[in-house]
Amino acid sequence: MGKGGALSESVLKKIFLSYTYVSVWIFLSFTVIVYNKYILDPKMYNFPFPISLTMIHMAFCSTLAFIIVRLLHLVEPVTMSADLYLKSVVPIGLLYSLSLWFSNSAYIYLSVSFIQMLKALMPVAVYSIGILLRKDAFKSNIMGNMLAISLGVGIAAYGEARFDSWGVILQLGAVAFEATRLVMIQILLTSKGITLNPITSLYYVAPCCLVFLSVPWLLVEFPVLKQASTFRIDFVIFGTNSLCAFALNLAVFLLVGKTSALTMNVAGVVKDWLLIAFSWSVIKDTVTPLNLFRVWACVLGCCVL
Description:
Elements: H1 2-40, H2 50-71, H3 82-109, H4 112-119, H5 122-132, H6 140-158, H7 165-190, H8 198-227, H9 235-258, H10 261-283, H11 289-303
Helix pairs in contact: 1-9, 1-10, 2-3, 2-8, 2-9, 3-7, 3-8, 4-10, 5-6, 5-7, 5-10, 6-11, 8-9, 9-10, 10-11
């Protein structure tokens, strides 16, 4: 009886922690998405420079992680060889920079609700890439559910009131890069013989991401920003936005490390519903009956995974 009680308590604690991680991630993801939309949208704050915004986030994350690890010594750095860094951290940094760049760019062209509908493809992408990288085993019933979700997304795209081909391409690219990154984080955390906590993960990945982003920034956005000499950065807006992004990055690494990339993306269906409801009621995005049908199809598909 004592053993059973202890086992039951351990299971309940694990379930409680898992739901806590998911809840924190949903809240922070919701906040960052809405905040980024506000900053990037030409009809709102009107800062249509997604690479610049992403670089501000990465610079903030890199600086804060460096202070925590190197100056305050609150977290011990991980001993990492140059070979391991190049083979694991650098690819993750590249994928992360592309994912953030493409995803933030999509907010200029698409509504929040439609972007969340396209993001429903994330479990499909994570599962497929997990199979390719031998992280997950192929199961025909799961793949069938994934294909049903993909079909639902196609219906949503067909019925979208504000459809922009370039925005869709950007968001689908972001999904592909993000799915690959999430699977590689799992491999880095569990299969390489090292342990990275959320802070040390940012300590190593964020500067790498910042370097990769600097290349397209110098070519694409810097010349435009240089001409717009009258623009001044609002430190309150960008500071609080960066702080939210930092917290979200910690939550992602923590959630993927404690559960799995697929679990996080299936849980993201709840976040999608919240964002669609918010964008429809507050931002006044148009949500068609076909859009809602797609959401229901994805919910049913994810619930039976």
